[in-house]
């Protein structure tokens, strides 16, 4: 850990590395990991819980008066009335992890009076440590990060996340994907939103968009992007996105182009924009094929 880092960021780095060590040990024999299902296609493992405990113990060991807002345990730990709240995703990309697909990370952010001030995203498979302190820039392994300089969406690589939870609107997502995909150099779905945002900050991709995300998915990554010179907001371009379950990020030029495409799909779009969208786009996915829906096979017809 660098002596030049903010003391709270140093503690977050220590917590992330402790969690990463737990994840890496479990990854050596991932088939023996106990898995449960929170809802359809939404998994949690004993590794998520062990990683979260390690992070919370490290953070509260250093700052016992701070609050905790974690994916698995919610707000049951720490001081619920504190202005300093640690937002934790102990294993972002759990589905990737349980399949041995090496794209997952630990995400830790510190909110001070509701604003992200410190951020760590740690990829234990590559030992890549992404960090940011508000006003001090973003780094990966002590190397300064800057967003990509590409200015045209048609030349850009954009990442996203596919809807997979019950209640997700597949038709809206597929219309968004179609609108974006045909205007880019490529669309990618790695499967861990915190890393997707870190990769925008690093300039590996020019943009990112996804719906249905929780604050622990995006808090740390959002500070990485802005400290690397990028922009983050909801689909209409408003910066207060953390709890709105829609997120778009990118370098300034690509961000603006993505917002122009995505804003009509936003839940904050005007009634007129939503009506136009419904009238002008067909249904792309049979509602019966959405997650959690039992589809009975049709009886075979006689030859």
TrEMBL record:
Domain of life: Bacteria
Residues at which Mg(2+) binds: 71, 89, 91-92, 217
Cofactor(s) needed: Mg(2+)
Reactions catalysed, as given in the entry: a myo-inositol phosphate + H2O = myo-inositol + phosphate
Gene Ontology MF, one: inositol monophosphate 1-phosphatase activity
Region (Disordered): 272-303
Keyword Oxidoreductase applies: no
InterPro entries on file: IMPase, Inositol_monoP_metal-BS, Inositol_monophosphatase-like, Inositol_monophosphatase_CS, Inositol_monophosphatase_SuhB
Record's keyword terms, sorted: Hydrolase, Magnesium, Metal-binding
Gene Ontology BP term (one): phosphatidylinositol phosphate biosynthetic process
A Pfam entry, by short name: Inositol_P
Entry's family note: Belongs to the inositol monophosphatase superfamily.
Protein name: Inositol-1-monophosphatase
Organism: Caenimonas sedimenti
């Amino acid at each position: 850990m660098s002596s030049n880092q903010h003391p709270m960021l140093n503690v977050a780095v220590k917590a992330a590395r402790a969690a990463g060590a737990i994840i890496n040990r479990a990854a050596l024999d991932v088939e023996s990991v106990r898995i449960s299902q929170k809802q359809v296609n939404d998994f949690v493992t004993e590794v998520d819980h062990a990683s979260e405990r390690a992070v919370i113990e490290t953070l509260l060991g250093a700052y016992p008066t701070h609050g905790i807002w974690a994916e698995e345990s919610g707000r049951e730990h720490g001081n619920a009335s504190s202005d300093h709240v640690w937002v934790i995703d102990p294993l972002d990309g759990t589905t990737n992890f349980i399949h041995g697909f090496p794209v997952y990370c630990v995400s830790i952010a510190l909110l001070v009076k509701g604003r992200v001030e410190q951020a760590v995203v740690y990829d234990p498979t590559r030992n890549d440590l992404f960090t940011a302190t508000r006003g001090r820039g973003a780094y990966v392994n002590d190397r300064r990060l800057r967003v990509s300089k590409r200015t045209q969406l048609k030349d850009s690589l954009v990442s996203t996340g596919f809807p997979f939870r019950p209640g997700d609107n597949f038709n809206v997502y597929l219309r968004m994907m179609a609108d974006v995909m045909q205007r880019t150099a490529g669309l990618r779905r790695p499967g861990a939103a915190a890393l997707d945002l870190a990769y925008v900050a690093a300039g590996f991709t020019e943009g990112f968009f996804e719906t249905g995300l929780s604050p622990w998915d995006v808090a740390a990554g959002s500070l990485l992007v802005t400290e690397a010179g990028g922009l983050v907001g909801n689909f209409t371009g408003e910066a207060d996105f953390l709890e709105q379950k829609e997120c778009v990020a990118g370098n300034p030029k690509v961000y603006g182009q993505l917002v122009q495409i995505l804003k009509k799909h936003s839940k904050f779009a005007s009634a007129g924009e939503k009506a136009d969208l419904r009238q002008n786009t067909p249904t792309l996915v049979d509602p019966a094929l959405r997650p959690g829906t039992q589809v009975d096979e049709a009886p075979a017809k006689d030859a």
